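Narrative of activities, Objective 1.

The group set out to show that a structural description can be obtained from nothing but a protein's sequence at a throughput compatible with the screening campaign. Below is one input-output pair from the validation batch, recorded exactly as produced.
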Amino acid sequence: MPTFHSGKTYAYRSNMRTIITLLPYLWEFKTRVGLALSFLILAKLANVSVPLVLKEIIDSLNQSQTMLILPVFLLISYGLLRLGSTLFGELRDAVFAKVTQRAIRRIANEIFAHLHALSLRFHLERQTGGVSRDIERGTRGISFLMNFMLFNILPTILEIGLVMAILINQYNIMFATIILITLLAYIILTLVVTEWRMIFRRTMNTMDSKANTHAIDSLLNYETVKYFGNEAWESRCYDEHLQTWEKAAVRNQTSLAALNSCQSTIIAIGMTILMFLASDHVIDGTMTIGDLVLVNTYLLQLYMPLHFLGFVYREIKHSLADMERMFSLLDENIEVQDKPNANILNSRNPAIRFSHVHFSYDADRQILFDVNFEIPAGQTIAVVGQSGSGKSTLARLLFRFYDVQAGSIRVNDQDIKSVTQQSLRAAIGIVPQDTVLFNDSIYYNIAYGRPNASAEAVYAAAKSAHIHDFIESLPNTYETIVGERGLKLSGGEKQRIAIARTILKNPAILIFDEATASLDSSSEKQIQNELKRIAQNRTTLIIAHRLSTIADADQILVMENGRIIEQGKHAQLLDANQTYARMWALQQQTHTKDESI
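Output recorded for this entry:
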């Protein structure tokens, strides 16, 4: 499987596989493609006919003065053919434009949707900057590939075939032979050298993605960089990637110059030999001046696009290299998928049961061991324990960000593996410990819980989360932009917006993952009362660090090293005088010290 997070391992797709991936997007507009190809053929026929008419014009004018007649029809035909070759080319581009742009749009959207379908495991390992740059280069390569492969390589091959047929039919076979040998030498040189040069392009792509990844990561963590005064360090790390990119780019450019020089040499030798041969036939009287002009014109018509064809072939190879990384994102396996004919979750009065659940993020590091517990419908279960004990993993598994290795998780006796992910997640609302907001307005971030909700519902949710008055005090009120990842707001303000968003969603199942961790004592009590209110008649899982916030839970689970080691109500656990009682005593001592300061 291709990996993108390290940049060290990367499985290259074959060029043919990448091209085949594009075919369905062409087939969708087969009528337009057929019409564009028709215009292409008409343009090339007009282009090939121009030298033939030009020959007749020159020969008709190359007569004695007494016999000279102005070839009006030929001159008009010459002008029409010139116009036709250009006009049909423009019509071809106009007809095909929708095909290219629709393909770019659909592929980009397909990759975007696929990235959202991938498991949390992929997104924890990926590097956003590199992935975004891969998509950017890949979509740009689609436009180049589709246009130039269809409208430069194919027409050039068609034109070469027509010219060869005309030369063989009307002149000595040596003309066609010399052209063929020149073409073969040119093509072989281009193929061999371009394939060798691709290593430089791939190195450039890899280092470009790495540099972009580092830049985005550094900018997102701007404050951390400033805290430690590591601006120079960040610039040095960024420049190391650019330095490797620079070396590859220089080699890429110098090898390109060498290839162009060799290609020009082959073309010059071929044209010189052909002109010698044509001139010799004119002197012998077997060819006219018009024939000489025709051969020369055909040579120019062939070798100019052929020289451009070398550029096109190189750029197509570059585009394929750009696209292979993008399309390899589609090859990433969707780890968590709906089963065929998956059912819709019955979320009415949901009861949740974890049965003998075993789970590990990696094969060599198991997180949960034989976890068993139940949350009856409408009740609140709290989970406490030291960091790394597996508390937050329970929420991720309930959302089905991962599938368990053994055991099952059931909601209303439906295994969550057998229901659609959309219906499962629609029934669950979460207030996470680390709230990340979109770089948009406060209104947008609250309304994200239910995008089709009315403005009144959004305001009501904000009031329930005790954030409405604060929002109204801002100059732009609900239209205030929160900044990248919500960095313009304090932790408590972000937490309240997350609570408002969940209230607006109005889910049947609630998860509070350290939901009040970023709040001061006064705000915490207000929010706790509100959380208790919205948790009424809902099945609720609370992941907590502060034991005082969950003392009245219907059931408390104590986790340690991935196992449930205690279970019961607050009073029962205190009477047991084990781990929970020690945690409670320690927090009470800390709380007393804080109040005395």
